[in-house]
Structure formats: C-alpha cells, structure tokens
Amino acid sequence: MEKLKVLHVIEALGGGVYSYFTDLSHVMGADNRLEVFIAYSNKRKEINPDDVSKDFQPNCKLILLDLVKEINPLKDLQGYLEIKKCIKRVRPHVVHFHSSKAGILGRLAIRSFKSTPSFYTPHGYAFLRKDVSDKKSKFFRALEKNFAKFSKTKTIACGDTEFEIAKKFEESPYLIRNGIRLELMPEKIERTNSKRLIVGTLGRISPQKNPKLINQYISLSPEIDFLWIGDGELSGLLTSPNIKKTGWFTDRTKALPHMLKLDIFIQVSLWEGLPIAMIEAMAMGLPVIASNVIGNKDLVDHGKTGFLVDNDNDYLIALNTLKDQKIRFEMGKAAKKKVRELYNCNKNFKQLADLYIDAVSNI
Predict the structure, then answer these.
(1) Which GO terms describe its molecular function (predicted)?
(2) In principle, which of 52, 65, 161, 349 could form an S-S bond with 294, CB 3.0–4.6 Å?
(3) Which fold has domain 4-179+344-361?
C-alpha cells in the first residue's frame, strides 16, 4: 500500500516548537502509514543546525528552507517561492504549516495546488505577542482573520484557548493538543534535601519569558533559590543574588535532568502557545506557578495543579502555599495525572495522522 506523503513546513524551529517537532518526528516517522517530510529554517539562535538530523527520527526526510522570522518583503517573496517549489518537488498528499510565518507564506503557496489538503497550526498566534506594537499586532490579527476566511487551509489548534480563538476566524477548526513523549520523563523524582526551596524554569531568556518579572518576584523571596535552565539575550536582567543560570542546552535530554532539582516550576510568560517545558515539568510531578495568559491557563488548573498569578501578591500567596510539602506533592500528583490524560504525544500525534488520512480519503 502506498504511504501517505506528509509535508510539514516550519520557520520557527526553536524552543518549544523544536521539542514539538522532535517528538512529532519520532511518532510519525515510526508510523508505517506515512512518509514524512519536514521543511524547515535553521536560523533561530537557540538551535544548533548540526543537531537537527541527529534529534529527528531518521525516517523523516529533511528539507532546508531560507525563511526569516521578521517581515521582510524580499526575503518573504523568496520564502513563498521556496515553499511553492518544495511542494511541487515533494508532491505530498497533505501539507501542514506551522507557526505564523510559514502559515502565511504556505497558505499563499498552496493555492497553486488546489487538490492538496492543507492544515495550519499557529503554535501561539503572532498577534498575541507583547513585544510588538499595537499597530503591528492589529496587522497580524487582520492577516490571520482574512487568511482563515479566504483560504481552504484548515486550522489545527495546539491548545484549548488557541482553539477558541480559531473558532472566531473559521468554521470547524480542529483541536489536537501538543504532547510529549512520556516515556522520556522520569517516573520518580528525587527531591532535594536542602532546607531552601528551589524553584525554576526552562527556556530561552527572552522577552516572551519575561525575565524582568522573574527577577522581581524572586527578589521578593530571598529565602528560596531560583534556577533558570537555559540562557538568552536578556540574561543581564537576572540580577537577584538567589538566581542561577545553567547556560543554554541545544540537547534537550541534557536540560531535562536539571528539572529534577526543582520543587516548583514557575513560568511568567507574556504570551504562549501551549508551553512544552511546562508540560514536561508537570509530567515530572512539579506544581506550577504561572502567569494567567493563553497557553499557561490551558495547563494550570488553579488551586489544583498549581496557581495562575496576575501580580506580586498572587505570586507570594502561591509561593507561601507551596512551601507546604504535602500541598506540593498533591498538586504535583494532579499535574502529572493531567499530562498523562491529555498531553501524550504518542496518542495525540496518532490522531493527527488519522486526520491527514481522513482528509485525503474525502477528496
């Protein structure tokens, strides 16, 4: 039987999206129904281009594209033509575009291939970013609204709130949640014997992750230690003496063990899609303190798996509550249970593959 050719197109191959694609490649690359192609840009600073072929499942065929993150008319025209040429060369049965830039250029390119089903996953809509002007945010929203209205490409949301937004732009989008490979997560965590609590996060020290607020919160809590697993361009904002940084890891398997040192996972992002690092922390049995934004609030059941915070006072209340070891254990247990029920990528990505097959069979 002929395998279904699936082409994934991605510009934003970094951070959580890199983890997403690593897991997706291992699930779909092992699916004997599929022949998987991943067309990507390797220009994000947080990845090592030489590691991509090592990290992704070897059955997946990799295609390098010259795409850039920011709006650049000349580069974007070239990117559109590259995507169009890639689709023509691979001749896939299904195309799936990921993140905003590939989503816009891809939905333009796929118009030349009218019989090919296509999908788009935002992984956090660009208009939710807080590091751009209101004018640019409105422009991004208008783009998404109009492309959803006039394109045949269907949206697949990666999280519940993203799904609710997608429903405002088009009829009958799909929801297939992000997930992780649970078999890579430790079943038991060795808790620190230190008298000081260790809280921490994992990710790039970037505007999205709001290191200024992290520094503010941690400076209010000199009795705890904070570990930032990662590095980034805004590391200079982390000045509180009880904050330590590990430095950046391009190998995810070397970063994850550092989470075993934590008692509490904290993430005060300004915006998110559906954060992979938080899913991983919850899978390890860590309670979470998180900013009350899209993505974070999809994962955290306030008062059950952790706390959603809007200000300093909320943070201090959450931290003081989680100083109780019994509460930390109960919330961590609930967090692990939620991840195992909803964010198992082996199950979720099989649903994604089934959706591709259904789309082709209904042509």
Answers:
(1) glycosyltransferase activity
(2) 161
(3) Rossmann fold (3.40.50)
Domains 4-179+344-361 and 182-342 share a fold: yes
Q: pTM for this structure?
A: 0.91
pLDDT tens-place string over residues 14-56: 778 889 999 999 999 999 999 999 999 987 776 777 888 899 9
The CATH number of the structural domain formed by 182-342 is 3.40.50.2000
- CB distance 333 to 152 below 8 Å: no
User: Which 3-state string (H, E, C) describes the chain?
Assistant: CCCEEEEEEECCCCHHHHHHHHHHHHHHCCCCCEEEEEEECCCCCCCCHHHHHHHCCCCCEEEECCCCCCCCHHHHHHHHHHHHHHHHHHCCCEEEEECHHHHHHHHHHHHHCCCCCEEEECCCCHHHCCCCCHHHHHHHHHHHHHHHHHCCCEEEECCHHHHHHHHHHCCCCEECCCCECHHHCCCCCCCCCCCCCEEEEECCCCHHHCHHHHHHHHHCCCCCEEEEECCCCCHHHCCCCCEEECCCCCCHHHHHHHHHHCCEEEECCCCCCCCHHHHHHHHCCCCEEEECCCCHHHHCCECCCEEEECCHHHHHHHHHHHCCHHHHHHHHHHHHHHHHHHCEHHHHHHHHHHHHHHHHHCC
